[in-house]
């Protein structure tokens, strides 16, 4: 994943004071978005569109290896519903459909780039922890 520039508004708020009260509507939206975006396919579609710009349906399916036609359709519809993706249908025969990230989708992609950078930065530590956990588990008595 290419490393996009940080969103200055998000960065300014990230280091600002923590609010005293959390708006329940915002909390519900965050839970909903995390539930959708944490999905493997959503993340891969987000990444493919961020890296490649506008893609036709068939190109998008090729970029997101292993996704079924049904799952791709369902996922881009959810992303479109949330305003993350713009779907453009060209009225030709056969129909030609393009997908591109909206500015909102692009900003989400930038936000999740931090997860990529975190994983890259801590890769060795995570691998060591997993190996230690597996070694400890293999020595346990299983009932």
From TrEMBL:
InterPro entries: ArsR-like_HTH, HTH_HxlR, WH-like_DNA-bd_sf, WH_DNA-bd_sf
Keyword Transcription regulation part of the UniProt annotation: yes
Protein's UniProt keywords contain Transcription: yes
Keyword field: DNA-binding, Transcription, Transcription regulation
Ranges for domain HTH hxlR-type: 23-127
GO biological process: regulation of DNA-templated transcription
Pfam families: HxlR
Superkingdom of the source species: Bacteria
A GO term for molecular function: DNA binding
Entries under PANTHER family matching the protein: TRANSCRIPTIONAL REGULATOR, MARR FAMILY, TRANSCRIPTIONAL REGULATORY PROTEIN
Designated name of the protein: HxlR family transcriptional regulator
